[in-house]
Amino acid sequence: MDQVLKDNPSHSRSDVVVLIDADNTLWDTNAVYVAARQCLLDEIRSALGTQVCVQVRSRDLHAIDEAIYRLHKKRYLYPPRFLARAVALVLIGEDVQSAAKKSLRGSKVESELMSESEIAKRYTRSIEFSTPHLRRGVKTGMRLLRKSSCQRIVLTEGSVRRVQRLLDHYGFSVCVNHVQSLNKSREAFDDLSRSFGDRGAQLYIIGDSLERDIAPAKAASIRTVHFPGGFRPAQRCNVVPDYTINSFLAGVKIINFRE
User: Fold this and answer.
1) Using CB atoms within 10 A as the burial measure, which of 47, 73, 224, 250 is most buried?
2) Could you read off the pLDDT of 196-209 as tens digits, one per residue?
3) Sequence-distant contacts of 125-133: CB under 8 A, at least 24 apart
């Protein structure tokens, strides 16, 4: 688990640890991905020209992305060339699930005008260097967390460098103890729970995803605070969080009150 340690001038103690999901919890990453996928689609559609026989919409792009995620061992960290490959296959008539499977097996649409690697690079750069909008209550909530005595750990399944850049941009770097890259699984949260639990700490997580944040954390006996976001997975998760909030600040207040 890669991490970037940050010196924090505020005092923190080990009996309360707050795990904060970065993407779609602190900021609206979903909007960034929607825009990046649309640009990728436009590039591929233009490159394929007369080979295109199907209209692909934003919700189709989301379905393609999720189909690859569920098949690839790296989940949402899968290489974007597979997305470019699958989108091209759907544009020429493949169904979403078939396109996702074929893209992972190496099938691709031949076109002199389409450079899969270049399209994937531009897609990655557009996400890496974007600045998504903060979600409701984040600015005040992060400042309040800084004043609290708990430890603050920001989690990401993506690039630590990108998350650190955004924390610096919004002035939140001084509000957290460190940023950690984590494959959000039951096992990963179990490791965190044991690591801090052995020191007598109570862990909380604030996250937007029932499937990737709340369910595995709750299975690891971490108290869960659900902050629903714009991302909606195709498969519904029925786990019940300990708390559901409509602003990040509300979640911070719950933790501070219980602390």
Assistant:
1) 224
2) 877 778 999 999 99
3) 126/32, 126/35, 126/36, 126/39, 127/32, 127/33, 127/36, 127/162, 128/159, 128/162, 130/32, 130/35, 130/36, 131/166, 131/169, 132/27, 132/28, 132/29, 132/31, 132/32, 132/166, 133/27, 133/28, 133/31
